[in-house]
Amino acid sequence: MAIAFFMLGSHHNVRRPQVGQQARRRLIGWLLSGLLLVLVSALALPPTATAARIGELAYFAGVRDNPLVGYGLVVGLEGSGDQTMQAPFTGQSLTNMLSQLGITVPPGTNMQLRNIAAVMVTADLPPFSRPGQRLDVNVSSVGNARSLRGGTLLMTPLKGADGEIYAIAQGNLLVPGAGAAAGGAAVMVNQLAAGRIPGGAIVEEGVPVDLSARGGLLELVLKEADFRTAQRIVDAINEEFGCIMAKGVNGRVIELNGPPDDHTRLGFLARIENIQVTPAEAPARVVINSRTGSVVMNSAVTLRRAAVAHGSLSITIDTQFEVSQPLPFAPIGAQTVVVPDTQITVEEQDAFLRVVAGADLAEVVSALNALGASPMDLMAILEALKAAGSLRADLEIL
After folding, report:
1. Phi and psi at residue 16, in whole multiples of 5°?
2. Which pLDDT belongs to residue 131?
3. Contact 127/65 with Cβ under 8 angstroms?
4. How far is residue 90's CA from residue 155's CA, in Å, rounded to a whole number?
5. What is the pLDDT of residue 352?
6. Which pTM was predicted?
7. HSE, side-chain direction, 13 A CA sphere, residue 216
8. Alpha-carbon distance 153 to 169, whole Å?
9. What is the mean pLDDT of each run of 10 residues along the chain (398 residues)?
10. For residue 258, what are the CA distances in angstroms to 20, 92, 213, 309?
11. Which of 6, 93, 122, 398 has the fewest C-beta atoms lying within 10 Å of its C-beta?
């Protein structure tokens, strides 16, 4: 209809230009109003669940990463390394490394080295890794080094939980931070005592993953336990294969009857991962980070009617030091003294009861914003609302 009306307006534009311009303006206004109405209607609709691949919701048992850790030395620092008097292990590590290279350091030698730092190196070994594969490593200082910027990590063996060496790390550090100091003042941006080496480790030995240990029986493990999602995954797999291929064990584990040979199992696992499933809606949850003051809540959070009175109490203690000098012709022995002048101020803001309620996330946010509370105060209010039974969500405090 809009296209037909626009064509009609263009036809009148040839005969009566003024009338055609008025019609065109009227048409544009109607179109904008209609578009705005559609957008408002779309925002008012409840969010629809989005289907996801099973590979994004679960993983096969045994297919996981393995953490690696190692101790090493970073060299090439511009005087920002460890102070060997406060970190003696750095000098000991250097002595041991030099002895392996055929260099003997006399006992009792006090090596005042500022261009070296002791570090811990960590990495994750992916499943099915093979020798020669590259891994990203993280390097963090364990001494009192001020900065690792511009340093080079020397060959460091990375060990697993069993004490075996699975990778070797070495390379130049990438430190995203920056800093400067002069005259007793210092400026630092981001972290300087930690860095990263992309592809800085080479795998020497992989961790075997045997998916045929139980014949054709496989386990599919959900990343987040949920009985509804587990049942939907079971139904989707059985519908995809047309037979009873999956069986739910609990809210996290699903057993699969897969093929026994490796070649057929590869296609079977790939087919399982690509099946589309609509996960169940996540439970209502409010996450509070007391260290950063952040409050995050998902769309399932609701708030029953409750009355909240919020006020803040602030206590200010201000101390100023004044100098008291002896008066002229004062007795012998009078001295100048420093006298502290302390003032304590207590301020309490007025608090009034406010009704808060919300049937969806937007209403909950509006009701909490109406209180005018700071993030720290909002944490206490949410805890009180949870205790009163008004907040329909689980509180998770980090």
Report:
1. -130, 95
2. 94
3. yes
4. 15
5. 58
6. 0.64
7. 11
8. 8
9. 38 45 60 51 50 89 91 89 75 81 77 84 93 94 88 94 94 78 56 89 89 78 91 92 90 88 84 90 83 80 79 59 70 71 62 68 76 77 83 84
10. 70, 54, 12, 60
11. 398
Q: Where are the beta strands (DSSP E) in 58-104?
A: 58-60, 66-75
Nearest-angstrom CA–CA distance, 109 and 238: 72
Q: Which two tokens stand for residue 217?
A: 């029986």
Query: Which ranges of 2-124 would DSSP assign to H, the alpha helix?
Result: 2-15, 17-44, 54-57, 88-100
Q: Which residues, listed in sequence order, are joined to residue 297 by a DSSP beta bridge? A: 286
What element of type H or E holds 267?
helix 262-273
H or E segment to which residue 356 belongs: strand 353-358
Q: Which two tokens stand for residue 232?
A: 């939907």
Work out the number of other CB atoms within 10 angstroms of the CB of residue 112: 8
Which one-letter amino acid corresponds to residue 121?
A: V
For the chain, the residue count is 398
- C-alpha–C-alpha distance, residues 390 and 354, integer Å: 14
Under 8 Å between Cβ of 141 and 118: yes
Check: CB of residue 363 under 8 Å from CB of residue 357: yes
- Which token pair is 157? 């063996």
